[in-house]
Give the backbone structure.
Amino acid sequence: MDQYLKQTPYSDPGDALDLGGLPRDPGQLAHVVRDLIIHRGEGPRFDYAIPEERVHEDAESRYATEVLRILAERGDAPLTERRAPAERFVGTCRDFALLHCSLLRATGTAARLRCGFARYFDAYYADHWVTEYRLPDGSWRLADPQVHHEYDVGFDPMDVPRDQFLVATDAWRTCREGGADPRRFGVFDLNGIEGLSYHGLWFVRADVLRDLAALNGVELLPWDAWGPEILDDAALDADELALIDSVAAAGSEEELRRLYRDPRLTVPDEIVSYTTYGGVRKVTLGRT
């Protein structure tokens, strides 16, 4: 069985998901997801004041079952029915990608989350998550289930060009080879607060690790971390640079799986979560 057809503990929707009413087409499933989730920064687009507790709490949901539970609590309409903003899950790009990936796998399309950097939101390479799904010919295509008609991105969100979204390993190689300034990669003016930004090669490294974990079935939150605490470029020593170089150079899924078995790269049971609103805390991950 294709490993990317199999649900992970994070993407598994549980037994409550009604597959009968869901479309199978990846684009149609992306529309379903867009009508169920509102990004926590999108309130003004919908002329909706998102309740502060939802901004703080919803996006801390790690598992698709939690996303679906919250949606069920806010309305009993079928998942295929467009919801008013007040009935939606309030999430981040990772949540759009996770739910899209969950529905794709549930309906027979191999899919996985990708962590990296988008060029189509502003002048920077913004930290972002998308879906990657397998086409019938075996190739992979990037899709952004967050982007809808109000985003003027200039391309089909179901076929995101590779130069518009750089998966984390591509971003790492580009920075290491001098093709881009790593200071342009990261999170800028977080939560609308001017100057609250995190960027640099150290941030690209963190996304490489999260992307590798997602490719191996551990689809973490965007602010989760493990291993040595590296929060600026000065903390990147020669050994760490060589380690991430090896991940970025991997040429096959088999090699990525082999690399992930390295204890320095494997996600442990206990991680550190640099939560946006709740501060830094240790988290024990659930396993199945």
